[in-house]
Amino acid sequence: MDGMPDPLWNVAIVGPGGVGGLIGAVLARAGHRVMFVARPETVDALTTGGLTVHSGKFGDFQVPATATARLSGPVDACVLAVKATALDAALERVPAGALGDGLVLPLLNGVEHLPLLRTRFPAAQVVAGAIRVETTRVAPGRIEHTSPFSGIEVASDTAPGERVEALAAQFRRAGLDVTVRDDETAVLWDKLAFLAPLALLTTAAGAPAGTIRTQWRETLEAVVGEIASVATAAGAPVDPATILGMFDRVPAGMKSSMQRDAEAGRATELDAIGTAVLRAADRYGLTTPVTARLVDELSTRESARLAE
Ligand SMILES: NC(=O)c1ccc[n+]([C@@H]2O[C@H](COP(=O)([O-])OP(=O)(O)OC[C@H]3O[C@@H](n4cnc5c(N)ncnc54)[C@H](OP(=O)(O)O)[C@@H]3O)[C@@H](O)[C@H]2O)c1
């Protein structure tokens, strides 16, 4: 229809895990043409069995899935939902030309992937995103969404505002909560300012948030203060009291995905979530001794664990 946006988009989801599987299944259920880009074994599993989602928020449902090991596009949007440790390898599956003029929306935690993506894709197509959710890929194609919420924030310093709004509108129509903000630095650092202390401390202590906010309070306050100062220097003013207030409200049993990865003996996103904060602190001439000590300790432990 003239003047009306196409109600159905072609969307690629790179990494059909906890986040990508959930978002892709919700979009597919709404009728969007979703192409999952995955490792060959996972392509087979998805093509055969589709995706099954268990979610208090979105319901329990199953959708058939179309999947490929290499995107040949074009698409309206390409959601990147791999862990930071797999980003380089996963991008090999997304030739730059294959996207057409589709938008690229990374939902990875961290702040350093945006400049990387803008070296690979036209800057006018790259949108920053952050997702607040707890969701797990329990097996290929099987997603357990355990948080009562799932909120996505998007913003772009380089993509046209109306294209970012169109993306948000399509996702919202499918039932996803999407907020468009006007500052991508704030989108990324607001998330990291809470996540980095949570991830570093729960992993270091091998204990959930409830233990951290009581027995590790002094360290928590130091790390939150350091990371808030880095976020503020990066251009996203963060109030440490607000972050500590969030810590005091989360469920006592809450774990971080870094902690779960470490417990399972997997590589963690320490570089993207912890070391990236130290690199930013360096750039702004800030000292972050407590955060640096934790990152160093976790890095040593991870190297030893992965060498076993
Ligand atoms: N899960 C959450 O609750 C949550 C919340 C907020 C933010 N995040 C962030 O979202 C990002 C994704 O996390 P996640 O928990 O969804 O991870 P995940 O469940 O481990 O899923 C990652 C997916 O990437 C796929 N993958 C790995 N290497 C690949 C490659 N070379 N090519 C194609 N696909 C590849 C994996 O494939 P296989 O299935 O074949 O192994 C898996 O399906 C992370 O940055 C995380 O910090 C996660």
TrEMBL record:
Domain of life: Bacteria
Keywords: NADP, Oxidoreductase, Pantothenate biosynthesis
Reactions performed catalytically: (R)-pantoate + NADP(+) = 2-dehydropantoate + NADPH + H(+)
NCBIfam families, alphabetized: apbA_panE (TIGR00745)
Protein name: 2-dehydropantoate 2-reductase
Ketopantoate reductase N-terminal domain boundaries: 11-148
Annotated Gene Ontology cellular component terms: cytoplasm
Cited InterPro entries: 6-PGluconate_DH-like_C_sf (IPR008927), 6PGD_dom2 (IPR013328), ApbA (IPR003710), KPA_reductase (IPR013752), KPR-Related (IPR051402), KPR_N (IPR013332), NAD(P)-bd_dom_sf (IPR036291)
Principal EC category: oxidoreductase
PANTHER family the UniProt entry points to: 2-DEHYDROPANTOATE 2-REDUCTASE, PROBABLE 2-DEHYDROPANTOATE 2-REDUCTASE
A Pfam family this chain is assigned to: ApbA_C
Ranges where the Ketopantoate reductase C-terminal domain occurs: 187-300
Transmembrane residue ranges: none
EC number(s) on file: 1.1.1.169
Family named by the database record: Belongs to the ketopantoate reductase family.
GO biological process per UniProt: pantothenate biosynthetic process
GO molecular function: 2-dehydropantoate 2-reductase activity
Function of the molecule: Catalyzes the NADPH-dependent reduction of ketopantoate into pantoic acid.
Pathway: Cofactor biosynthesis; (R)-pantothenate biosynthesis; (R)-pantoate from 3-methyl-2-oxobutanoate: step 2/2
